[in-house]
């Protein structure tokens, strides 16, 4: 399966709420600002426990770069009218399954000492 098709399937499963059927390997690893989750079972268990934070999103895909065994996608995820998150993710593929995702996004306010002067 080509990387673009696999990434599209990933987003389709999230849109439909069918996260149990995500196209990920048994040793799937997800890295984000919240930390690292190792293993498909651990990832799915976390989603089950936090469905209110994982489900019900719409996705606006802005850009995608698709290679043989990896892809990078930049998108905006929206949950309802009040929550929006700009994300860039790298997807690493092995044997037609997503083996790892490294996700980049901002999860909080900018500390006062990190704010730019004059803006």
UniProtKB/TrEMBL annotation:
InterPro entries in the cross-refs: NTF2-like_dom_sf (IPR032710), SnoaL-like (IPR037401)
Top-rank taxon, per record: Bacteria
Residue ranges of domain SnoaL-like in the record: 7-98
Gene3D superfamilies to which the protein is assigned, alphabetical: 3.10.450.50
Protein name (record): SnoaL-like domain-containing protein
Organism: Snuella lapsa
Lineage: Bacteria, Pseudomonadati, Bacteroidota, Flavobacteriia, Flavobacteriales
């Amino acid at each position: 399966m080509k990387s673009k098709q696999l990434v599209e399937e990933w987003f389709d499963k999230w849109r439909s709420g069918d996260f149990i059927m995500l196209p990920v390997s048994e040793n799937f690893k997800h890295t984000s600002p919240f930390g690292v989750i190792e293993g498909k079972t651990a990832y799915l268990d976390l989603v089950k426990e936090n469905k209110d934070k994982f489900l019900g999103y719409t996705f606006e895909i802005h850009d995608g770069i698709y290679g043989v065994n990896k892809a990078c996608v930049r998108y905006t995820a929206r949950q309802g009218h009040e929550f929006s998150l700009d994300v860039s993710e790298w997807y690493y593929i092995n044997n037609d399954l997503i083996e790892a995702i490294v996700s980049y996004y901002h999860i909080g306010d900018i500390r006062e000492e990190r704010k730019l002067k004059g803006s």
